[in-house]
Amino acid sequence: MSRGIVMITLIGLFVVMVSTTMVWSQGTVTVVFSEMDPHLGQQFELRIVNKATGEELERITVAEIPVPSFELSFTILEQRASYRIDFYADHNGNGRYDAPPADNAWQLAIDDASGNVTLDFHHNTDFTDIAWPPFIDGVITTGEYRHTLTDSATGIELSWQNDSTYLYVGLTSPGTGWVAIGFDPEQRMRGANIIIGAVENGEVVARDHSGTSPTGHREDSSGEIVQVAGTERSGKTTIEFSIPLQSDDPSDKALQPGQTVPVILAYHASSDSFSTRHSKRTTTEITLD
Q1: Per residue in 144-178, pLDDT tens?
Q2: Same fold yes or no, 6-122 and 147-287
Q3: Across the chain, what does the average pLDDT equal?
Q4: Do 65 and 40 meet the contact criterion of CB atoms below 8 Å apart?
């Protein structure tokens, strides 16, 4: 097999998943991979993240690495911004990310981008645990999140996963109205950091609220939602989002890895208005990794 650099086309080999909040801008980044022989035939995934905001800009899944050397290019760079590129090969072949050494994972950085950027990556064993997160696209697939539960009182399906910086959450309600989760309440809604979302005319709308009383809440002056996406299908609403564990909003409590957090779950069966009283609500808890 040739060991020359091969530009692999996206057709038939790649699944490209692009965030709906991506801002296309002036620069192109090209990553040139070489000596990937140990991973021929293995699944490969890569994502690009804005360092400052934590927003994932693009994700690519390669069903099987076909050749030892190839390159990927993305026209996503915003000038003077910095980026992180996370990628891994599914070395143990189970179809999902596992921390090294089970899977081989790496990280590259682009600091203060200016113009087009080319990065060379030669296969090595200097692995990094990249804590591969769910993809925030409004669709929750089996095994996408490390933790899931179905609340018997409301029928809401809750999925979550965290790394040391961000919490990723998926909510699926048995209705076509809004759905919400509140973290670490003190008394009913009081003191909770509430994320409420709905899908209106095919577009996701989400707000960051704080519980101001046992039965009241209001929108925060500065929302802390990093990314959000949603879909409405078969009479159900799915909202996915990510938030920082350590919020800059003084009304939000910090979340810590390893912490068990009480949460409120609520939804409305048909109304997208955030001021409409819930159809059902409950309280449960989640444990962060």
Answers
A1: 999 999 999 999 999 999 999 999 999 999 999 99
A2: yes
A3: 89
A4: yes
Query: What's the CATH code, domain 6-122?
Result: 2.60.40.10
d(CA 268, CA 115): 47
User: 170 near 134, Cβ under 8 Å?
Assistant: yes
% of the chain beyond a pLDDT of 70 = 90
Q: Where are the domains of the chain?
A: 6-122, 147-287
Nearest to 239 by CA among 195, 184, 194, 283: 195
| CA-based R_g, the chain, Å | 20
In terms of Cα–Cα distance, which of 286, 283, 227 is closest to 257? 286
- The CA distances from residue 107 to 57, 132, 133, 138, 181, in Å, are 15, 11, 14, 26, 32
Report the alpha-carbon distance of residue 178 to residue 101 in Å, rounded: 41
Domain covering 147-287 in this structure, CATH number: 2.60.40.1210
**17-67: pLDDT as tens digits:** 444 344 444 688 899 999 999 999 999 999 999 998 899 988 999 999 999
User: Do 46 and 32 contact (CB within 8 A), yes or no?
Assistant: no
Contact call for residues 161 and 145 (beta carbons, < 8 A): yes
- Beta-carbon contacts of residue 270 (< 8 Å; ≥ 6 apart): 175, 176, 177
